[in-house]
Amino acid sequence: MRCPKCHHNGTRVLDSRPSDESRSIKRRRECEHCLQRFTTFETVEETPLLIVKKDGMREEFSKEKMLRGLVRACEKRPVPIEKLEEIVVQVERTLRNEGEKEVRSQDVGERVMERLATVDDVAYVRFASVYRQFKDINVFIKELTDLMNKN
After folding, report:
1. Partners of 51 in the beta sheet?
2. pLDDT at residue 7 above 90?
């Protein structure tokens, strides 16, 4: 590790501890030459996860985009933002654990809806109506009926 002050290559680690929910390691270092102390972070470089859209286009997975969709579905609903962030983390973890480099957007949406259905019924229906692009009232009623039968 190169010192940010004198650019000497020799440093020693004084302290290491987990950071960012154990997804990275924070290291306190000291330059062997000028004794400057500084902090570094070590993280795993994840391979990009590509989402294959309905039209065949591909885009990189975005936690922020998924969270925006969930927030919109939960507007004026008693759902804490922490719960929505938890859903995003769970879905991303599930997708990455499957080991696929490309995932269909339909599969991502289904996983989100599974988790959202357990949090808030109204938010679930809102998300499903946009995600599944309900064409008419009959499809909407069928989705509501299915939801009521599950409960």
Report:
1. 59, 103
2. yes
Within 8 A by CB and 6+ apart from 49, the residues are: 60, 61, 92, 95, 96, 101, 102, 103
List, as own/partner pairs, every contact residues 2-9 make where C-beta atoms lie below 8 angstroms and the sequence separation is at least 24, other chains included.
3/31, 3/33, 3/34, 3/36, 3/38, 4/36, 4/38, 5/31, 5/34, 5/36, 5/38, 6/31, 6/33, 6/34, 6/36, 8/32, 8/33, 8/34
Q: What beta strand segments (E) does 20-143 contain?
A: 24-31, 37-43, 50-52, 58-60, 102-104
For residue 135, pLDDT over 70 is answered with: no
pTM: 0.65
Half-sphere exposure of 127 (CA within 13 A, CB side): 29
Nearest partner of 1 among 26, 30, 24, 25, judged by Cα: 30
